[in-house]
Amino acid sequence: MRPEDLRLPPHTPGLRIGLFGGSFNPAHDGHRMASLTALRRLQLDRVWWLVTPGNPLKDNAALPSLDQRIDTARALAEHARIHVTGVEARLRTRYTADTLRALKLRCPGVRFVWIMGSDNLTSFHRWNEWRAIARMMPIAVIDRPGTTHRAVASPAANWLARYRLSENEAAALAGSEAPAWVFLHGKRSDLSSTYLRKLANRD
């Protein structure tokens, strides 16, 4: 593992930074599109792609190395305000809630926003300490094809309903006290890491 891949990206108090976590196996244009949407609509200064060593809810036996996934993600991101990092491996955190606690501790004064696709909101209630995550920092949900209605009808969305901001308030999210969340609609990508892996296995 390369030491530079495990460092925290540059940050200073007051910055508005979106955190976009996942295995990025592989990274694809949907990740980039969601990040650009978040940068623009939430008026963020940066988006950090947190490339996880392994998702505890998935089988990681065939997962490519962290180095390989980081390299692919950086090549795909190709944006000065999207930073790719494997810092989770350095933090030795297994679950998202623990990662977010560690980042808040190490980055005082940074205004973090957790970014997820609407497909993840459908199963958010199964995540370890999902309510703690919602209370820890604001959440931006980016619409994904085929999951819009299931996402807003999900158990987590129902629990969070009273804390939802309208889309025209999206720019205020980073400065809002958690729990707070917004559902962002816009240009969408049909690509998914699952689909791309299946496609690769056919070759």
TrEMBL record:
Residues 19-198 form the Cytidyltransferase-like domain. GO terms for biological process: NAD+ biosynthetic process. Signal peptide: none annotated. Keywords: ATP-binding, NAD, Nucleotide-binding, Nucleotidyltransferase, Pyridine nucleotide biosynthesis, Transferase. Transmembrane segments: none annotated. Pathway: Cofactor biosynthesis; NAD(+) biosynthesis; deamido-NAD(+) from nicotinate D-ribonucleotide: step 1/1. The keyword ATP-binding applies. Its EC number is 2.7.7.18. It catalyses: nicotinate beta-D-ribonucleotide + ATP + H(+) = deamido-NAD(+) + diphosphate. GO terms for molecular function: ATP binding; nicotinate-nucleotide adenylyltransferase activity. Catalyzes the reversible adenylation of nicotinate mononucleotide (NaMN) to nicotinic acid adenine dinucleotide (NaAD). This is Probable nicotinate-nucleotide adenylyltransferase. The lineage of its organism: Bacteria, Pseudomonadati, Pseudomonadota, Alphaproteobacteria, Hyphomicrobiales.
